[in-house]
Design brief:
The protein is an alpha+beta fold and 241 residues long. The chain has helices at 2-12, 35-42, 125-134, 136-162, 165-181, 192-199, 203-215, 231-240, and strands at residues 46-50, 55-57, 65-71, 74-79, 85-91, 95-97, 111-114, 118-124, 186-187, 219-222, 225-228.
Length: 241
Amino acid sequence: MESRRIEEACEKCKDRCCSRCFDGGEDNLFDCLTTEELELLVKEKRHVHFKAGETILKQNTTASHVVCIKHGLAKIIAEGDGDKKLILRLVAEHSILTGGGIFIEEVRQFTVQAVTEIDCCFIDSDKIFELVTKNSKFAFELLKLNNRQNVQILNNLVGITQKYMPGRVADLLLYLKNEIFQINPFDTHLSRQELADMCGMTMESFIRILKEFKTSEIITVDGPQIHIIDEEALARISKKG
């Protein structure tokens, strides 16, 4: 049943895959491809469904495919020694993931794990390489995409290392509202521990800051749902660090 659903989904999106499929996203990478180039790209693509908690890409494995997330929410994780992990950022639907290593020794630099159920397409990296050599505009757009993703991760790490805890939590809440979910209120889909990990603090400290924001009537919290009431106050806290 699952394989039939995947085949049907893939068949339905063939004539609109990639370019128009990502009209609503920030990573509209495939618009600059010709019809023939787009056909080459999607000729042997594979539609895959992941359940929440499953690994989509694994750190230190071969970067053999680019993944286009059509629906769902995933997290990018840097894995350290032992059980040490750092959630670098989240990726929502209409996002394109290269694994961070498509041009660097062909090894993935991070793990991508499904937070919710995910529908995505896997595209052979060799086809990406072929298009890069033929289409300079596509190569430029791919470079911009990788740079943009790297800047997002860098900004997150700078915030974690240089800001006080209220500033980190303010950054996270603004990031979730404005860049990931783009609605208010929003359901984080993440545990308090995961949210704390994204801020580089203990869960106890994260919960304490949330309570302080709630007491100050900056936010309301109802289980996994957060409602930002005073976004200007959060912005000020973020700026002060």
